[in-house]
Design brief:
About 60% of the residues lie in helices and about 5% in strands. The chain is mainly alpha-helical. It has three domains: about 110 residues, no CATH class; about 90 residues, no CATH class; about 35 residues, no CATH class. It has a two-stranded antiparallel ribbon with strand order 1-2. Strand 1 and strand 2 form a beta hairpin. Helix 5 crosses helix 7. It is globular and about 80 Å long.
């Protein structure tokens, strides 16, 4: 399978990884190209492309650093991502960097490694707040593993505040006692058959379905429904923007929301591929790209809703 060389986009971090992967995949082709006598290749470029001791090993090392970051960003942008996933991803990144440092890679200096660690720690401090630690603590997949004592205190404080906000009876610290049973797998949390369902149930549904009677369940289920990024919301706005267009501005808000729900449900149940029609506008002296990404079922459902509105 042939892979072409890629160029990065200014707005997508992951494309840097795609660029480096395409560069590595075309290594032999590039080396063969710079050796051709009929090609006028600069000496510096020829030397770098043929450098097997520094240049290409550095590309591989940089990929080992950037790829987990790109994968983490992709994971957090999913619809089913939770706040607790952010804590886990940053923890994994720190472990990966520590492992690379232990290997004593001479291609990257210790000063560079310290700079990389500082950058990740700075981003971690900016992104992770007490509510993330509380969600990570209540997530049955993670149960607060690897949290520091300070982070655990922040998590306890958030959980206590939410208990007060939700008006949960907590005179004798029942919430924290229940949390202790959860972490130690004691009391009602001691049954292994229920813990095995964490692999098949979403965390919020696990709390509602398996431990809905526990005093801490309302807090956990609410926290585990919060998305870590705005990407899921932006995708919903994209659906809304495609529905609430000039042609359908006569629709009321209720009908627009129904159209959004129908369109999103159809895309979830079966793939709908974009079909682009490219035309050239002579008057505007530009190329026009029309996006026709509506399936037959979707068009039929939308037409029914519009007829109801009429």
């Amino acid at each position: 399978m042939s892979i072409s060389l890629k160029l990065p986009l200014n707005t997508r971090f992951g494309f840097v990884v795609i660029l480096l992967e395409s560069l590595e995949a075309n290594k032999e082709a590039l080396q063969a190209a710079v050796l051709k006598k009929d090609l006028n290749v600069a000496k510096m470029i020829r030397t770098r492309v043929l450098d097997e001791e520094v240049f290409w090993p550095r590309i591989q090392t940089v990929l080992k650093i950037l790829k987990p970051i790109a994968n983490g960003i992709t994971q957090l942008e999913r619809d089913n991502a939770t706040l607790s996933d952010a804590v886990k991803i940053f923890h994994n990144l720190n472990e990966i960097i520590d492992q690379l440092i232990d290997k004593n890679d001479e291609l990257i200096t210790l000063t560079d490694w310290e700079t990389i660690q500082k950058a990740i720690n700075k981003r971690s401090e900016a992104c992770l707040k007490p509510i993330h630690f509380a969600t990570y603590l209540l997530d049955p997949r993670y149960q607060g593993k690897s949290l520091t004592n300070a982070q655990l205190i922040y998590a306890y404080e958030i959980i206590e505040k939410l208990a007060g906000y939700l008006k949960i009876e907590n005179d004798n610290r029942e919430v924290l006692n229940n949390l202790g049973d959860f972490r130690e797998h004691t009391g009602f949390f001691s049954y292994d058959i229920l813990w095995r369902t964490t692999k098949t149930h979403k965390p919020c549904y696990w709390w509602k379905g398996m431990y809905g009677s526990e005093i801490i369940s309302p807090i956990a289920s609410r926290l585990l429904q919060l998305p870590p990024t705005s990407c899921a919301c932006e995708r919903n706005w994209s659906e809304h923007g495609n529905v609430h267009c000039l042609k359908r501005n006569r629709l009321k808000h209720e009908k627009v929301m129904k159209l959004v729900a129908v369109r999103h449900s159809l895309r979830t149940s079966k793939p709908v591929y974009n079909k682009f029609t490219v035309s050239y506008d002579k008057n505007a002296n530009s190329t026009v790209i029309n996006d026709n990404c509506t399936s037959d079922d979707e068009s039929h459902s939308a037409q029914e809703l519009e007829n109801d509105e009429d």
